[in-house]
Amino acid sequence: MNVPTGRTHPGVAPSGARVEPAIAAADLVKKYGEVTALNGLSFAVAPGTVFGLLGPNGAGKSTTIKILTTLSRPTSGGATVAGIDVLRRPDAVRRAIGVVTQRASTDPQATGGENLLLAGRIYGMRGRDVKARAAELLERFGLTEAADRVVRTYSGGMQRKLDVAMGLVHRPSVLFLDEPTTGLDPQARAEMWAEISRLARHEEMTILLTTHYLEEADHLADRLAIVDKGMIVAEGSPDQLKSELRGDAVVADLAADADPALARTAIERLGGTRDITVEGRSVRTRVDNGAAAVPAVLAALESAGLAALSITVARPSLDDVYLRHAGRTFAAAEGGEAR
Amino acid sequence: MTTLVAHTGYFTGRQLRALARQPAFVVIMLIQPMIWLLLFGQLFKRVVELPGFVSGSYVDFLTPGVVVMTVLFSSGWSGMGFIEDMDRGVMDRLLSSPAQRGAMMASSVANQAVTIAIQSLVIVLVGWAMGARFDGGVLGILVMLVAAVLLAASFASLSNGMALLVRTRESLIGFSTMLTLPLSFLSSAMMAKEAMPDWIRDVSAYSPVDWAVVAMREALSADPDWGAVLGRLGGLLAVALVTGWIATRAFRTYQRSL
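^ inputs. structure came back:
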């Protein structure tokens, strides 16, 4: 695997000092009968960072979370969370982590406030402490007015916010977010993204996030691993992974009277332009620095007497990265499921 | 240990609040045993004329029997709460938190105990209104409540343990209905021992359901044989503890399936 970033250790801080990883999974294998859900999955997450596990449904993301949160045991391999062995001391791990599962996990027959109080009390919070914390979280997630209503009456977005608030009530050092924004409308998703970013920046929480939204991983994760068929196929920062594709896409849309073949020749002659393709009236090329190449491309087209209607520069997307490492597009891996 | 008690308290509170928020369910829960007592009391009114019945009034005889049947039918459903929690994702959240498994089991049992105690008192009141007389007095009624709660604890644990194993409503409903009626009739809940076929009388001697009925009737009688009562209550307590322990172990089996 020629992933240049695969060999760097996230446990090494920028200063070069070794830091104990907040989460370390080593060679996790999980088999359900004949089905292999995890097939030797390893990664490490530095404290205080957001780590994204990106992959289609069924890639093994949720199984990984279940093992790291002590819900399930691996067939082989091991893991530590907050420096604690998940197999030997699951009780200690449970006190250190917060978990927001993929499905809602709130009690529909209890009010939002009762849900939060119970969650806090399970972690040993008592009296005024737990009440103040519950009130603070209700305020932060905009649920104060709904606090005395039973959760059954909440909208999907409100339930999701309450889920996250319940995962935070005991101020965990490591937070697991399994598909935190699945099923949320765009506005609720944007609010959730802002909250997750805030947690990582200001509360120094380590967050392991799973998602099958490429843009979510790109937006939130400091580092991410692409999971496919129970293994990690690529790992690095979103920018590192994308820069492997070397360069930006520059797309020129030509005017109706311009000949795309001539445009192609003109761009070819420029030098430094790779992978030139023509699709209809659009000519696409890949260059090292998209912004710098735009004036040259425009000049070349102009001197050939060709008019461009528009010219756009696009950074490589994680979709491109996924295509390269998993050998298929993300949408195809999802099995045609809407995402 | 203090954590276990504290968690049991929190979880019991959660379940009782949920119960109080479903007034229709509470009303049904109270009416159902009344219907049984009224219906069976009328239907089998002349059973007491059979040789073997000591009691002169079938309502006297039937009241503890209906309490025990109510225990079986109510507690047999206890596991539905676990299945709802599994479906809602509440179970997985609790199992990845420091929530004590023993407290999850004990709170479900405590919830059943509260329900059963209230239902039993309603049955006693309706029985009294129908002319039943309890010579054992307040003490006899208290012993009856203890026996009902202990039997409820065993059945709730059994139902909860099954819920963790089968994990679907349909299977749990099947299991519960398969057990409740035969266990009711393999005891002296509705029929005096002396009037039973020999084999049923022999089998019933080993049934905790029958222990509960016998302890109740004895305690409610004018001159209770306290040795017989305490022996059976002790047996019921042992069964409740063992089933509770086994059911709590079933959490492991459940987690292995995840």
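Residues 1-16 of chain A have pLDDT under 50 and may be disordered. Residues 186-202 of chain A form the longest helix (17 residues).
thumbs up if we can close this ticket
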